[in-house]
Structure formats: C-alpha cells, structure tokens
Amino acid sequence: MALAGEGADLAHALRRRPLRRPGENLIVALLALCAAVSIATTFAIIIVLFRDAIGFFREVPVGQFLSWGAEWQTLFEPRSFGVWELVAGTVNVTLWSMVIALPLGLAAAVYLSEYAHARTRRFLKPLLELLAGVPTVVYAYFALTFISDDVLLPLFGQNVSFFNSLAASVMLAVMILPIIASVSEDAMASVPRDLREAAYGLGATRLEVAFRVVFPAAISGIMAAILLAIARVVGETMIVAVAAGSTPNLTLSPLESIQTMTGYMLQVALGDAARGTTDYTSLFAVGALLFLLTFTLNVGAQLIVRRFRESYE
Predict the structure, then answer these.
(1) Domain range for residue 184?
(2) Which among 17, 19, 285, 308 could disulfide-bond with 53, CB atoms 3.0 to 4.6 Å apart, if both were Cys?
(3) Can you tell me the distance from the alpha carbon of 94 to that of 97, in angstroms, rounded to the nearest whole number?
C-alpha cells in the first residue's frame, strides 16, 4: 500500500512538473490547437446545419414535415414535404443490407478467430479488409450494371424495378462486411484463452466454445461492430443514389425503387436549387434530421456497449 501511495505521488508530481524542453511546450500547444479546431469545426457545422433548417421550417410547417401521411413531392404542384418516405428508404436499405451482411460477417469473424490457422488468418483478414478500400462509386455502378441488370431482372422479371433497394443493399452489405468481420474478430481474439481452455476441459466442442463462450464474452465488441456498420450504411450516399433510385416510397420492399435521405441530399446538391429557396433549405432540414438520427444511434451504441462490456484481468 505504501509503495502504491508513493507511486501515485510520483506520477502526480511528474504531471505537475513543467516540461524541460521548450519544443515540447510547442508540441502540446499544437495538439491542443488541433483538438480545439476539430471541436470548433463540429460546432460550426451544427450551427450552419440548423440555421438553414430553421429557414426551411419558416416556410414548411414542422407538422407537415413530420406528418406520417404526407408525401415527399417537390417536383410537381401541390408540393409536399413529408420526410417519412425518405426515412423509410434509409431504413429499407439498412434493414436488407444488415440481413445480408450480419450472418456473413459474424460467420467470418468466428472462422478467423476460432478455426483459421494463424497463417490463414494473416492472409485472409487483410484480404477481407481490402473490400473497405473499394471506392463506393465502383460499388454503385456494379450494383446497377450487374446486380440489378444481370441478376435481379432475369430472376424476378417485371416484379423488380431497374432501380431497386435490393441491388443497393447487396453492395452495402459487401461494403460493411469488413467492418463487422474485422471488429468482431478483434473482440473475439481479446477474450482470454483461459475461458476457452476451461470450456474444452469440460468437454465442449469447438463450435460450442465459439458460440456459447467466446461469442457472449465478446458481445460488447460485436455490438459495437454492428452499430458501426449501421451508422456506415445510414450515411452512405453514392451507392443508394445510383442503384436504389430517386423515388420517395414508404415501403420496406427490397424490389421497389426508393430514395434515401442521403440520396435526396445529393440530388439537391447536384441540382439547380438556388440558395435560399425551399428546395435548397430542405437539404438542411433533411440533413438535420439525419444528424439527430445518427447522434441518437451513437448515444444508444455507447449505452449498449457499456451495458454488455466484460472486463478481464
């Protein structure tokens, strides 16, 4: 106890001790400046986003914007700004991409963590992570020209639109597969070997150890991987803008054309909307709602990860 107290006093004294080299003071100041710039930039983005969003709500009532029955129709009269069709499009691609990517990513993580030889793991894991480096515009046009045109149309015929949610969801699943697999595998690899050996000593098989010992012990890291993948899908723009279409649609069907929140924002940003018009400010209103949704998702992710976090000493 005495040694611990002396160590704490020494660490406290070292933290309070002035830096000997003047260059270190400069480095500390630069690091603090970088942190301040990042915080200031974040607040500036929030201020600009909500300032222009408030300008939109001066012309369009909040009740219409959040009305469940209102359509998102900005091209023809009478114009309507019911945002739930865009929210439904975002939920649509998120749902189906997770349905595809989640089992594949977790299966890959279990294989890499519990079954693969060390040399196989060193080869496969970087290869899998290369998928995260492919430009999203490549994924987008692959979804449009191959998944939709050469796979879904011959398979479903007239029941599927050329621009559809499923083609975009397949590519989104491929895009987030490295996130789920890599982060989950890291969480499983951090589980102490003693837990595995104890389970093997009780006669458990490798599959039972993977799913009944390692998986529950690494659940906080796995949940973090899943929530990170969801946030990545929600914020993706190019794939959904090219492959999913630009038709606001209140549906969860994967075979129909939809429009996501980010897809609409790209459409307005590339269009001829003049600054200060309703079309222009609607971009910020949708962006503000997207910001609130992703912020809520991140806060919920932190709460979930803390709730299920396991500590091993």
Answers:
(1) 72-308
(2) 285
(3) 5
